[in-house]
Amino acid sequence: DADVTQTPRNRITKTGKRIMLECSQTKGHDRMYWYRQDPGLGLRLIYYSFDVKDINKGEISDGYSVSRQAQAKFSLSLESAIPNQTALYFCATSDLNQPQHFGDGTRLSIL
Amino acid sequence: GQQLNQSPQSMFIQEGEDVSMNCTSSSIFNTWLWYKQDPGEGPVLLIALYKAGELTSNGRLTAQFGITRKDSFLNISASIPSDVGIYFCAGQQGNTPLVFGKGTRLSVIA
C-alpha cells in the first residue's frame, strides 16, 4: 500500500549497532503499529500508538523502542541489535474500528 | 496473550480446486478480518466481518463470522495461480489491536 511507506526496505547490519526503521503514512490515520514477522509465527505486535501522545507496548516490545514524531510518522528503534531480531518488520495504520493497512515491510538482517 | 489457531498451516492444491481455511479462538471477537500477503509485500485486506453469522463475498472469496464469535473461515473457489501467498486471519476485541493467526501458506499447482 503506497499510502504507508517504510524505509529502508532492506538493511543488513552488525550485532550491537543502533538501527532505526521509519514509517510514514498519507492516510491521515491516528493509529499506527509496528509488527514483526518470522516464518511460521505470523505477525506479532511490537508497539502501537493511538495518537501522537500515546505509546503502548505490544506482545514483544523487549529490545525495541518507538517514537511517534507526528501523526504521520512512527519510527521503530533497535538500540543494540542482536541476531535474533533478524526478521521482516511491518508498519500498519488504521482509524478507530477500521481494518489496518500495511506497508511493504523492511527486511532486517543482523549479523 | 490471545492466540488464534489458524489451519491448515500450508496447502498444495491443483488449479481450479476450491480452498477452505479457518481460524478459531478461545476468546470472543467482535471483528474478524482476512488478509493476503504476496511475496515481498505487506498483507492486504481481503474481507472484513463485523457481525456474528455474517457471510461476505469478494469475487471468488467468501468468508464467514462464526455464530459463537470465536471462529471464522475463508473459502476460495476455483483457485488460480495468482492465489498463491500467505493468508492471515485476524481478530479484534473492542478497541484493542488486532490479534493475528500464524497464516496459511497456499501453493497452487497449474
Give an overview in words.
By secondary structure, chain A is mainly β. In chain A, strands 2, 4, 5, 6, 9, 10 and 11 form a 7-stranded mixed β-sheet that branches. A 4-stranded antiparallel β-sheet of chain A has the order 1-3-8-7, with no helix packed on it. Chain A has no helices and 11 strands. In chain A, strand 5 and strand 6 form a beta hairpin. Chain A is globular, with a radius of gyration of 13 Å. The termini of chain A are far apart. Chain B is mainly beta. Helix content of chain B is 0%, strand content 55%. Chain B contains no helices and 11 strands. Chain B has strands at 4-7, 10-14, 19-25, 31-37, 44-49, 55-58, 61-65, 71-76, 85-92, 99-100, 104-109. In chain B, the strands form 2 sheets. In chain B, strands 2, 4, 5, 9, 10 and 11 form a 6-stranded mixed β-sheet that branches. A 5-stranded antiparallel β-sheet of chain B has the order 1-3-8-7-6, with no helix packed on it. In chain B, strand 9 and strand 10 (99-100) form a beta hairpin. Chain B is globular, with a radius of gyration of 13 Å. The N and C termini of chain B lie far apart (40 Å). Classes of the chains: A mainly beta (111), B mainly beta (110). The A-B interface holds A 1, 4, 33, 35, 40-45, 48, 58-59, 90, 92, 96-97, 99-105 and B 1, 6, 9, 31, 33, 35, 40-45, 48, 88, 90, 95, 97-98, 100-103.
